[in-house]
Amino acid sequence: MIISPPFLPASGLTSSDASKPDPMMDAVDKFELAHGVYPVAFDRRWHCGVHLAPDTHGAVYAIADGEVVAYRVCQHAIDSDNSNAGFVLLKHSTETGDGRKLTFYSLYMHLASLAECYAMGYDRTGLAEFLCKPSGPDTKGQVTPAASGGGHKVRRKDILGYLGRYQGIVYMHCEVFMLPGDFDTYFGHTQLGNPAPDTPTTTDCWGHTYYTIPAGQQFFALPPGTDAHHKLYGIKFETGQTATNTLPLDVETYFSKGAKYTNVWSVATDGSRSLLTAQPVKEKDYEYDLYHRATALYGTCPSDGYEMLRFGRILSTPATLAVEQLHGQVARP
User: Fold this and answer.
1) Which pLDDT score, from 0 to 100, does residue 332 have?
2) Which long-range contacts (CB under 8 A, 24 or more apart) does 212-218 make?
3) How many helices (H) and strands (E) does the chain have?
4) Number of neighbouring beta carbons within 10 Å of residue 160
5) pLDDT at position 154 over 80
6) Which of 221, 223, 277 is nearest to 249 (CA)?
7) What InterPro entries does the record point to (predicted)?
8) Is the dihedral of CA 11, 28, 204, 283 positive or negative?
9) What is the pLDDT of residue 333?
């Protein structure tokens, strides 16, 4: 399942920083208002969502394919035209690589009334038919009744309405959440909250990859066996540092536009983390070169080598590469 933010500003299409894998989301992050942050708002009360305020009364988009659970479309604003009560609640379901079902919900509140949309120059273009009329009997100054989803479905980036306001302030309240049963069904199979996680044994691997390196490990400036040109079986390596880490390290790797990026934190005895990489370390074209690198370095079983380079572990069973090769050594037949 692909997920997009509820707003799609033009600034999210113009990022030149390849280390940022989701520039659109970074642009939307700037819309967050201080009085409505997650999980505790400015008044110190629990706040389940975020308040987002783009520069204009633009469209609000569905973040993913989903089913409409409930919605409210109002003909007029309320509170002396200072607030909007329109909302859409969506249910999203997908599966990950191991067939585990993931169910979550997204809520979009304070959507503008139909009268305001027409006044701002928006017509029905892009709106589903059920969102083009009030969801129930509408009396100006009163809240229009909400309606059940009625089996309606939406696609990612479908327009759900337009940005409204609450108590005179222009913003949208947005939530993404799970019900307790759905949360346990999915995350009960993960190592969430485990301070000493084990290496997973499933093939369910996606997104960013994280490693924990225990203290006292030997690091090499170059892989053993490299030649005078810093090459091993034709693959060139950048020179690092020879050292031993005194503290455990947490490592994050991810890919964006063909490059591999790495962040590293040291972990103190009290569990606090200190970022050691001021900027993500970039390895240009690493993802594009994975096949060539795997076949050159892991001739015994290039497919195992490919998975180890890409995911940090071998997903296929049974694994062909020897145990010592899993710890950073390379081999040729």
Assistant:
1) 47
2) 212/248, 212/249, 212/250, 212/251, 213/245, 213/248, 213/249, 213/250, 213/251, 214/248, 215/245, 215/246, 215/247, 215/248, 216/244, 216/245, 216/246, 217/244, 217/245, 218/244
3) 5, 20
4) 26
5) yes
6) 277
7) Dup_hybrid_motif
8) positive
9) 42
* Host H or E run for residue 27: helix 23-29
Identify which of 69, 79, 90, 89 has the alpha carbon closest to the alpha carbon of residue 143.
79
Q: Which CATH number fits domain 10-186: 1.10.3470, 2.70.70, 2.60.40, 1.25.40?
A: 2.70.70
What are the structure tokens assigned to 54, written together? 């783009």
Domain residue extents for the chain: 10-186, 200-327
* Assigned token pair, 117: 């949309």
Q: Which of 129, 154, 151, 127 lies closest to 63, judged by CA?
A: 154
| 3-class secondary structure, 28 | helix
Q: Considering the chain, what percentage of its residues have pLDDT values greater than 90?
A: 58
Query: Is the CA virtual torsion 35, 41, 42, 43 positive or negative?
Result: positive
As a whole number of angstroms, the distance between CA 48 and CA 50 comes to 7
